[in-house]
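Exercise 3.2. Students should predict the tertiary structure of the chain below and write it as structure tokens, then compare their answer with the key that follows.

Predict this chain's 3D structure.
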Amino acid sequence: MKCPVCGSPDSKVVDSRPTENSTIRRRRECLSCKHRFTTYEIIEVVPLFVIKKNGTKEVFDRKKLFAGLLKSCYKRPVTNEQLENAVAEIENEFMNALRTEVTSREIGEAAMEKLRALDEVAYVRFASVYREFKDIDTFLRAIKSMQKKK
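Answer key:
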């Protein structure tokens, strides 16, 4: 950060405080002329876009993912906290990969993996909707493949 008085690029942070709107206020002191000045840092968040099956794009909505997982876990021994953690892990996985776009298929697969670890019945419920099982045979194949992975 350049000093506004002498232009020196060397300064030290004297005080740092968060503000109400997700910015950080920093008091700095120039190491050359000792002038004190204030800077504000804004956290830049790049949105994650979901590419749907029909090719349209929309911003990732963690509430929609949570709602889908919650429906799958109806009357199952899975807590809201476990579901929130699963949603956060899925979102962080894609954000940490520095991706700006992800397919709905990738999100669905990640959700199924999290559900498989939490509750097998919830996993089968989610998979039956997500994979659009057309008949009982495809449903049975999914259950058998789950039994093999144990």
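Discussion points: Strands lie at 11-18, 23-30, 36-42, 49-51, 57-59, 101-103. The mean pLDDT is 88.
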